[in-house]
Structure formats: structure tokens, C-alpha cells
Amino acid sequence: MQASTMAAADSTKMEGFWSSWKCQAMELLYWRDLKKSGLVFGSLLLMLFSLTQFSVVSVVAYLALASLSATISFRVYKSVLQAVQKTDEGHPFKVYLDVEMSLSHDQMQKYAENVQYYINSTLKELRRLFLVQDLVDSLKFAVLMWLLTYVGALFNGLTLLIMVVVCMFSMPVVYEKYQAQIDQYVDLIRTQVNSVVAKIQEKVPGTKRKAE
Questions:
Q1: pTM of the full structure
Q2: Are 99 and 13 in contact (CB under 8 A)?
Q3: How far is CA 78 from CA 52, 68, 93, in A?
Q4: Which residue stretches of the chain are H helix?
């Protein structure tokens, strides 16, 4: 009974942590705090641009060295300051060292089940598309893959990641500012696409969806 109560408490804490993390991520993407968003955005771009010039191992090693240099220097500075002022404030990173970062068995099992669910769903969807269970959906997937061949010819993976990061930190703000106009154009495009799909379903045998 006590073990189950502790597991439930740990699960509640972890859910609260993820909820808080999501809120912080949304605040970063919507630039609620310009300094924090600018720092994260700049750091991500710097890392990605570094990867275009250096190997992953070199970038990781340089980042680790930079972090260690900063923390060691700060630790030595605080130790010297405490010695001069004859104070005992303790370890400067004690607050962060005391933060609980371990995951319980139940939490690990929960996340493993979620990963398993997404993998199984992805495999089923790919099977459905490649084996043409629905012709229209398979054609849409084929068009998407065809477009991606051109995208891959124009950009490499790192360039795409840079573009994704830029879009992540710009599109939410743009959408928030021009939501009405964007929704209007999106509805128009969706209507046109649905109209084309309906025409294809009428003319091509075997493309009509079965009534549920």
C-alpha cells in the first residue's frame, strides 16, 4: 500500500514536472521573456552552425569544455571569496546538486509503454500506406515523398534543422499576431485540397472510403 502510494506520488510529481516544462517551452517559443528566448535561440543556432563546420564529437567536446571552464572558474571564485570573507556559504551549486533527477521503475515503464505505442502506431500507418489500404492516402504520401526528394536535393539535414529552429521561434509569434488572416488562408487551402481529393475519388475506381 505504501509502495503504491509512493509510486503515485512520484508519478504526480513527474507529470507536474512535464507540465511545467511544456509551459516553459511555450513561453520560450512565444518570446514571453526576450532574454531567455534570445539566449536559447542563439545557443541553438550557434550549436547548429558549429555542426556545419566541425564534427559532432568536436562540438560536444568544445561545449563540455566551455561548460566545465565556467563551472570550475565559478567554483574556485566562490571558494576564494568565502576564504577571504571568512564565510561558510557551502557549495555554490548545492541547490542544483540536491535536485532529484532519478526516475522510478513505474515511470520508466510508463514512458516505455508510450514509446512502444507510438512505434506500433507508426509501423501500422506505414504498412497501411505502403500496402495501399486507402489509395488516396497512399497517393498523398507518394506526393509528399516526391516533394521531399527536391527538399533533400536543395538542403542537407543540418540546414533543415536550422530552418526548423528558426520556424519554431518565429512562426508562433507570427501566427499569434496574424491568426485571423492565416486561418482564413489555411481554410481556403484545405477546401481546395478536399475538392481535388473528392474529384479523384469520384473518377478513380476503388478510392472512395468505406462508410463507417
A1: 0.61
A2: no
A3: 37, 15, 10
A4: 2-29, 34-53, 56-85, 94-97, 105-130, 135-154, 157-177, 179-203
